[in-house]
Amino acid sequence: MSLETLYQEILLDHYKRPRNKGVLPHASVHGGGVNPFCGDRIDLYLRLEEDRVVDVRFQGEGCAISQASASMLTEAIHGKTVEEIRAFAARVEKMLKGEEGDELDGLGDVQALQGVRKFPVRIKCALLAWKVLQDALGEYLRNPA
Ligand code: ZN
């Protein structure tokens, strides 16, 4: 199995069986956003305890890439601190924009998103959840609950 096929399999798996999908009542952090180019929509809910994500959910609709990316995101950030998440999301953004070299260790399933780089219009789909996350955390840090 080629790496490209493997990435597609991982992506489709997250799309067909999304992880952590749903609404989280009493979330510490909530954010939403759309990608008008494709009609994708993502809402993210995080519950924080002492600055660490103890629960996370997403709601959304749109193409397979946008939804799979959100599903991967929820798995990737669970248990991480706000600072760790911001650094992680920045790496993912760089990876998707082709600015990250070979330093992809520790990204887990999220690595599969790099297959999208060959399709520039789809990069916005893959980035949506990560942008929603960064915006929501930025807002949270300015106005802690
Ligand atoms: Zn899309």
Give a verbal description of the structure:
The mean pLDDT is 93. The protein has 145 residues and is an alpha+beta fold. The protein has four helices and three strands, in the order αβββααα. Strand 1 (29-35) and strand 2 form a beta hairpin. It has a single domain, classed as Alpha-Beta Complex (Sufe protein. Chain: A), CATH 3.90.1010. Helix content is 46%, strand content 19%. The protein has a three-stranded antiparallel sheet, with helices on one face. It has helices spanning 3-16, 64-77, 82-96, 120-142; strands at 29-35, 40-49, 52-61. The radius of gyration is 14 Å and the shape is globular. Bound molecules: zinc ion. Zinc ion (ZN) is lined by residues 35, 38, 40, 62-63, 65-66, 125.
Give a quick set of tags describing it.
145 residues, globular, Sufe protein. Chain: A, alpha+beta, 4 helices
List the helices and strands and how they pair.
Elements: H1 3-16, E1 29-35, E2 40-49, E3 52-61, H2 64-77, H3 82-96, H4 120-142
Antiparallel strand pairs: 1-2, 2-3
Helix pairs in contact: 1-2, 2-4, 3-4
The site of zinc ion has 8 residues, from helix 2.
What does this entry show, briefly?
The chain is an alpha+beta fold. Helix content is 46%, strand content 19%. Helix 1 (3-16) packs across helix 2 and helix 3 packs antiparallel against helix 4 (120-142).
Number of strands: 3
> What is the mean pLDDT?
93
Q: What fold name stands as the CATH topology?
A: Sufe protein. Chain: A
CATH architecture label name: Alpha-Beta Complex
Which percent band covers the strand fraction?
A: 15-25%
The number of distinct structural domains comes to: 1
> What Rg, in angstroms, do the CA atoms define?
14 Å
- Briefly note the structural class of the backbone: alpha+beta
What distance separates the N and C termini?
Answer: 47 Å
Largest sheet: 3 strands, antiparallel
What is the CATH C-level name?
Alpha Beta
Q: Number of DSSP helices?
A: 4
Ligand list: zinc ion
| Residues in helix, % | 40-55%
Order of helices and strands, N to C? HEEEHHH
- How are the strands of the largest sheet arranged? 1-2-3
